[in-house]
Amino acid sequence: MTIGIEMGRAPNGEAATLDLEELLSTRLLVQGNSGSGKSHLLRRLLEQSAPWVQQVVVDPEGDFVTLADKHGHLVIEAEDHTEAALARVAERVRRHRVSVVLNLEGVEVEAQLRCAAAFLNGLFEVDRDAWTPLMVVVDEAQLFAPAMAGDVSDEARRAALAAMTNLMCRGRKRGLAGVIATQRLAKLAKNVAAEASNFMMGRTFLDIDMARAADLLGMERRQAEMFRDLQRGNFVALGPAVSRRPLPIRIGGVETASRSAGPALVPPPVASAAEARDLILKAPQDEAPRPAPVRRAPKPPMPDILVQLSQYRPPAAAEAAEPPPPPTPEQQEDKRRRMDAILRQVLADGDSAFRPASVLYQDFLVRLRIHEVEGPPDLPAFRRMLSTARAGIDPDVAEGEAWQGAVARADSLPEDSQGVYLLLARAALDGLPCPSDATIARAYGSHSLGRARRLLAYMEERKAIVLRAERGGRRVVAMVGLGWETAPGDPDGPAEDAAAA
C-alpha cells in the first residue's frame, strides 16, 4: 500500500506528494541557508507522517519539542543522562516503537556530538527482532558529520561521523531511514550526503553550494543561479520518492510551532539625549537599590528515562475509563480469521516473497488499523504466521497437534530457513510432490536456484530432512522425526506460490 505525504504545492497548483515507503528506502537530504525554511519542511514531514511510522528527531536547538503536545512524542533531555544511558534508551525506543525527540539544547557542542553518537549507535545496534521501520531526522547535520575538523576534539568528531555514516550507509537494512538537513553542502561529509537518493534544495547564495545543489539535481551549471531567487519555504525536489525531474515545491503549513524566536523588528524607545545620558551615565550611588535576587529552588531530579519508557502508554489508552472486557471465544475466532484474510492480502503482492518480514509486518499493521482489528501480534508471532501462510497451511490445520510438532522442529533451525522447512513439511503432510528449486528459492526470498539447493543440503546436515533421488532425477524429501514424506517431484520445475495454492 502506497502512503502519500502531501508536502505542499507545485507551480501548477497540484499537490506535491512524497511516497513515504519509498522515502524510507532511499533517504532524504535537505539543504538551504539559514532562514530558507528547512526546519519548517522537516516539521511538515514529521507531522504528516507521524501516524504512519515511528520517528526519532535529533534536535540540537530544541525546535521540535513541541511535537510532544500534538503528536505524543517523548522528549529526552540529553543533559539529564549519560552517554551509556542514552544508548540503553535508544534500544528501548526501538523495541517499544515510541517516537521521541532527543533535545540537545542544554549541552555544549562537543557533548552534543557525543550524545548524538551514543543515541544513534543504540538505534543501530539493536537486535534483529526490533528492525522495524524508523525515520531518523537529524537537523543541522553538518554539526554531526562535518567535512573537516573543527573546534571539537577529534574523538567526539569521529564518533559522531561514524554514527551518521552508519545511519546513512548501513541503516536501511536495519529499518533506519535517515532524513538529514544542512545549511551548506560544503560543510557536510561527502560520504554521508552521497547516500541520499532524494533531495530538497532551498535558497543558497555561495557559488560552491549552488554548483553542488545543481549537480545533485541533475541541472546545468547555468541554472544554478535560480537557488538565489528561491523564497522562504520554497524548495526544488528530486528523487524516486518525490519526482523523477526537478520539481519546485512550496511547502505547506504546519500544526505545531517552533520555540525559536524569529527576527521581528522592535523599535527602540523614544528618549531625548539628556534622558539617555541620565539613564546610562548616572552615578551608581544615585540609582535606586535593586531588589534582592529571588533564588529559585533547584529543579527536582528528572525521573529515570528507562522508567518513563516502560510506563509510556498511547494517549488514547491513558484516557480510557476502564479496560475492555476480555474477548469471547467467538470474537477471538473472528479476529483470527480476519487477520488470516489480511495476511493473504499482504502476500498477494507479487514482490512479497522477496521483501523482509519487518517490511511486511509494517504493511500488515497498517491494514489491521484500516480494518479496525485490535490487538495486533508482535513481530515474532507475525513471523510464525507468515511462515505458516507461505507454506500454504490452512488455518484450521495449523491449530492441529501434527502441525504444531512441525512448528516445534522448525524452531531449531535459523529463522530465515524455517519458512522453507514448513513448506516441505506441508508438502509431506499432504503427500504432494516435492517442491521445485524455484519454489524453494521463492519461499527463501531469493531468485537463486543455487541458494535453494545449498539450503536443502544444510537442512540435511542439521538432520532436519532426508533427501532421496528417484528415477528420472525426481526428488523426495522425508521429514526427520515426523514420519512424513513428499511424493516424487521435479527439482527443475517452475516456481509455485504455496500460499496462493
Provide an overview of this structure.
With 501 residues, the protein is α/β, with parallel strands linked by helices. It folds into two domains: 4-251, Rossmann fold; 334-485, no CATH class. Helix content is 41%, strand content 14%. An eleven-stranded mixed beta sheet has the order 2-1-11-10-9-3-8-7-4-6-5. It has a three-stranded antiparallel beta sheet with strand order 12-13-14.
Short description:
By secondary structure, the protein is an alpha/beta fold. It contains 20 helices and 14 strands.
How do the strands and helices of this protein lay out in sequence?
Layout: E1 4-9, E2 15-19, H1 20-26, E3 28-31, H2 38-49, E4 54-59, H3 67-71, E5 74-77, H4 83-96, E6 100-103, H5 109-124, E7 134-138, H6 141-144, H7 154-170, E8 176-182, H8 190-193, E9 198-201, H9 207-216, E10 234-239, E11 243-251, H10 273-281, H11 305-311, H12 315-318, H13 329-347, H14 357-370, H15 379-390, H16 395-398, H17 401-410, H18 415-430, H19 437-444, H20 449-461, E12 465-469, E13 475-479, E14 484-485
Helix pairs in contact: 4-5, 4-11, 5-7, 13-14, 13-15, 15-18, 17-18, 19-20
